[in-house]
Amino acid sequence: MITRSGWCVAGISAAVLGAGWWLGYEELLVLGLAGLLVFVTSLAWVAYRPQVEVRRELNPDRVTVGEPALGVLTVTNSGRRSSPPMVASEVYGNEVLEIAISRLPSGQSRATPYQLPTARRGVIQVGPLTMRRADPFGLVATGKRYGEVDTLWVHPRVHAVVVLPSGLSRDLDGPTSDTSPQGGMAFHALREYVHGDDLRQIHWRSSARTGTLMVRHMVDSSQPVTTVVLDTRRPRFAPDRFEHAVEAAASIITTCRRENFPVSFHTTDGAAFASQHRAATMTEYLDHLAGVSLSDGGDIVGLATQLRSQSTGGALVFLTGRPDISDLPVVSRLRRSFDHTVVVRFHDELDVTLHGTADPSGVPGALVINAGDVRSFVQSWNRLGRR
Amino acid sequence: MSARLGQLCLLIALVATAGFAFAPVYDESSFTWVMILTAVASVGLWVLVRERWPNVPSAAIGISAVAYLFVMANGVTRDAFLVVPTSGTVAEVLDGLVNGWARLLSTSIPVAGDPSVYVLGPTLVWIAGCTAAELSSRWKAPFVPVFPPLCVFGLGVFLSGAQSGASTAAAGIFVALALALALVRHWRPARTLANVGSQGGAVIIDTADLSERRTTEAQARTMKRRQLALGTAVLVSIALLAALLGPELPWASARAPYDPHDVEDEPEVERLDLNPLITLQASLTQRPKQELFTVDPEGSTAATRWRLDE
To answer: Taking the CB of residue B216, how many other CB atoms lie within 10 A of it?
Structure first.
């Protein structure tokens, strides 16, 4: 394929050559002839199309922001001649990475590692890949596309925070529900056996009556749920402050899951991610957080109504940006449905002056952490947790 | 860094070579140095100022304009060094830009001793240098910065007119420099495992033999260097071929070189009398270095006296 530069060079060269002939100037003839010679050489340069197969591996496919991640291209030359040097153009999110693939003898394969940029959080699509051959002047390029697409999850950084004392259990057996964490001593219901259930919980009498295996659904009603709400409304956050809020959410969730405490995670744009009765979900949470982004809309009132109807107590952590007077009544109402409410605000001191209310730092009945960045949040949070 | 420095040097050389298309137009001893100084100052200053203040294009325009006047005052309008431009310099430059075209086209070349005509060439080279530097920083396409110097080169050849063919060597050098610039601009270092180290992160690869990967990495690095070397060989060959074959093309000599100086009318002289000496005087004024006659005193008698009246 002739590039735009190629068409320009060919066109201008032809024009200069024509002008040189028309005006009788030898210098223009030299320039025009040189341009056409370059163009023809470039066409000849990429005439041979090698037969290669390409396979990509991401190593690892999940990393934290700033950690190294490698892509490994394994190129196999299935043709009868050596493959010429090529450039693999890899689509990486919104950018294109170029990886040099050197000459490869017939029938051989070679793995070429390359670095993937991980400076920014996100769920990044890696691929499709194009094996490209171009002349040294960029006038002509040919390429074969390999459509396989992999995903690289760049997780937010996780900081060491303590588990917040998240409320009291009202009853030893407590209110039970289908979503209460399993493994406790409180009987909730009988249900059909599913793969992975503890065989000791099989209820043989019911199984005999129904003809299918039935198990006792035992729940742990004493474990308090930590509900994390991340504000994703764009006007609430100054540039770069949102990343601090995401890292704070990741830190709280990771700590809770590490201690086997149930967590539910919500964002103000309506997306919810709750997993209270499954064991290994820390990666799933981080995957979800890797894809969280600011949105123009957001219904915090609707979210508050939903949380109040589903609430079984525990702690509520509301991560937001600039303080705003319109959020105060919503958070105040939510506070009554939870044993503890913590509001974490990521903003500058200047923001408080500009957007603040009469008492911007106070939410009645809730603990408020005003933090400029995630480090100051960690210090304040850990101080709060150790009280 | 080395690639950027290489680009800058090539761009300066290309702009200076474009200026040498004016060589048949001007008969001045300082022509070579003025063109080199113009190319270095225009491109170098523009790049430096744009890097220092990337969001203030007016700074580059202002500083470049002052430097332009300084070069004009020292190299073009005065045959001296370290002359500070004055209002007289500005007036001379303006006069050259406005009226120099007509004077250049109405006289036979080479032109000498007229600063107002001499201003044109370096000014065009200066504009080409600044434009090429700006295009080079804004566009990734390899050949984009070649376009302004190419236009100036073409204009220089056009103004040379009947002297066409005198700059064929310059055209060959121009081709070589243009291709070298495109080659360097299109060349990018390969993304390899070696780049990971710059982030300071330790990398553990557990899926293949590390020594094999290091070999692959070295091959990938050398691959681009080989392509650069091969591209250099290609560009030198093309420049030589074009310079040798261009004038020898079958239809190259089909037309006589077009001379724009034929079109422009001779300067009008009020003919108050029909004395042919006035016409002769005008012709001699335009060619001050023309040899008129030779006197051989040998063989003459001692009593012979010579007198030259003006």
So the answer is: 23
Query: pLDDT (tens digit, 9 = 90+) per residue, B44-62?
Result: 999 999 988 888 888 889 9
From B11's Cα to the closest Cα of chain A, the distance in A is 16
Instruction: State the pLDDT confidence band at A153, using cuts at 50, 70 and 90.
Output: very high
Provide φ and ψ at B17, rounded to 5°: -65, -40
Task: Mark yes or no for CB contact B247/A29 under 8 Å.
Answer: yes
Report pLDDT for B41. 92
Q: Does A99 contact B157 at a Cβ distance shorter than 8 Å?
A: no
Residue of B nearest to A38 (CA): B238
**Which residues of chain B have a CB within 8 Å of the CB of A38?**
179, 235, 238
Confidence of residue B174 (pLDDT cuts 50, 70, 90): very high
Q: How far is B166 from chain A (nearest CA, A)?
A: 8
Of B178, B207, B194, the C-alpha closest to B16 is B178
Give the pLDDT score at B195: 41
pLDDT tens digit sequence for B247-259: 888 777 777 788 8
The answer to whether residue A194 scores a pLDDT higher than 80 is yes
Q: What is the pTM of this model?
A: 0.63
CB-CB under 8 Å, B157 with A27 = yes
